[in-house]
TrEMBL record:
Subcellular location field: Golgi apparatus, Golgi stack membrane
Described purpose of this protein according to its UniProt entry: May be involved in cell wall biosynthesis.
Organism: Urochloa decumbens
Domain of life the protein comes from: Eukaryota
Catalytic activity, EC: 2.4.1.-
Residue intervals passing through the bilayer: none
Protein name stated in the entry: Fucosyltransferase
UniProt similarity note: Belongs to the glycosyltransferase 37 family.
One Pfam assignment: XG_FTase
Main EC class the enzyme belongs to: transferase
Main location: Golgi
Topology relative to the membrane: Single-pass type II membrane protein
Amino acid sequence: MSLEGVGTGLSKRPSQQCPDARRAEAQEGTVEQDTGPWIARKKVTALAICLVALPVLMTTVSRRDAPWTAASFWQLASTSTKEKLLGGLLVPGFDERSCLSRYHSAFYGKTMARSPSAHLIKRLREHEALQRRCGPGTEAYRSAAARLRSGHRNNGSDGDDNAPGACKYLVLVPYRGLGNNILAVASAFLYALLTDRALLLDRETSLGDVLCQPFPGATWLLPKNFPIKNLQNLTGEVPESYRHLVQQSGGAAAAASRRSYVFVDLDHSCTYHDKLFFCDDERRFLRRGAPWVLMRTDGYFVPALFLNPAYEGELHRLFPRKDAVFYLLAHYLFHPTNKVWGLITRFHDAYLKNSDDRLGIQVRVFDGDTPFQHILDQILACTSQENLLPEVVTQEPAPAAAAAAAGGARRSKAVLMTGLSSWYYENIRWKYWQSATATGEAVSVYQPSHEEHQLSGYTTHDMKALAEMYLLGMTDRIVTSGWSTFGYVGHGLGGLTPWIMFRPENHTTPSPPCRRAKSMEPCMHGPPFYDCRTKHGADTGKLVPHVQHCEDMSWGLKLVHPE
C-alpha cells in the first residue's frame, strides 16, 4: 500500500479539530477550502465537541498526579460529576461562583479517602428539606420564634411545638478557637441529624465569614433578632439548663415541659449531670419536651453519641466505617469562602503542587508563645524516627553520588509547617538549606503565616487559620501536636492518619516523641464516664470496640474502625 495515498486521503478529510486549527490548516494549504453546507455542519459539530471537551481537559491537566491519556480522558469525562459532588455528599444547583470551593475542591487534591453510605446520602437530603421547611424566613420559624419570645408552650392547639411534624431546633453556641468551632459544628450537626432538628449557628463567631452556607435554599445562621440574647454568656447555672432540669424532683420530662427551651452546657469541663445528655432516657425527654435546644460546646463529642444504644443502629447505617465520621461530615459542611479558597489554591499551586512528596507539620505549643528548644528537638526526633524527613550529611556529595542516592532521579519533598511562631520553621528550613540530604532528595520548607499570638474570632486571623487547615489536609503525610483541635481538623479534612506528638512535660522532649494514631478521627477531650446501658460509672473507652482512648489524651475518646 502506498503511504502517500493514505496520507493524501487523510489530509483531504474534513478536519475534526477546533475551528482555529481548521483555519490554520486552510491557510497552510494542507486541506481544501470548501464552504459548502456539509462542511459548515461539520464545523458546528466540531465546535460543539471542543466546547464539551475543553472543561474536562482543563480539569485533567489541573489535577495532580493525573497524566493525560485517552483512557483517563474518557474515564474523567464519565466520572467527573460524581467526583465533583463527592460521591453524592453534595447536590448540584448552588451558584458555583459564589462558593468556588464547594465543587472545585474535588479536583484539587486527592481522591476521597472514604465514600459516603447510601443511607447517609439519603438522610442528608432529608435534612436539607428540613432546613428549608423550618429555617429562618419560613412561617414555621417565625411561629416557633414567637412562642419562644413569649415563653408560651402550646398544648394541642394549632402550632403546637409537640405536634407531629412540628419543627424543632438546635441552636449551637460554639466558642474558643476556630478548630474548636469546626469540631463543635460537626458534632452538633450529627446530633441534629439524629434527632430531626434544624441546626442554627450563633453569629458571634467568624464561621459565617470564612465558610459558605452548606444547605441549599436555607441559611444556618441564627437571625440577629433571635429572642434569647447574650448566648455566649449562658452557663449550666441558668434555670433552663439541662444540668438543673435532670436534678428536679418531679422528673426531667416534667421540668422540661414547663420550659420554652433547654440549655445544654457541653464545655470540655462540664459536670456529670450535664453529660447525662448523651444517654437514652434524657434524649427521649428532650425530644418530647424541648422544641428549642440551645447548646454551648467547644469540641468534638461524636464518640459519646456512639455510646448511646438509642443511636447505635442509625449510626451504623450512616457510617459503616467508624473512622470516617468527621471526614465525611467536614466535606459536606465546611466549604471555605472565595477569599479563603484563594489563599489555599495560590499557596498550593506555588509551593506544594509540583513536589513528589508533601509532609505537613502542625505545631501547637501550650506553654506560651515563646519558642522552646525541646519542641524543636521533638519535631526532629519524630520526623527522623518515623522516616518522614531524610537525614542530612556533613559533607557535600559529588553530583554522581547524589544522583545515585536518589535512584537516578532527584526527588523533591515539600514540607508545610503551620504554627504561631516562625522559629521552628526557620530552624528546619536552615537545616535542609545548609546541608545536603543523605537520600539526595531536595527538601523545601514553607510556612504560610506566623501570627505569633492566637487571635480567635478575628476574621482575618481565622481566614488564615482555615486556609492552613485545608493546606495541611492536602499533604500526603502529617505530623500534629497532641491536644490540638487545629491539628485534628487538619488531618481530618485530608483523611490522613497522623503521627501525633505527645504533649511535653517539664520542658522535656517526650520519649517516644510521637506515635502513629489509630484513626484519623478527632479526640473528644471531655467524655462521659457513665454507661448508658447499666446506668453506672464506667471506663467508656472499653465499652464498645469502635470507641477507644486517644493516643494524646489518656482519658479522651476517639472513634476507630475495628479491623
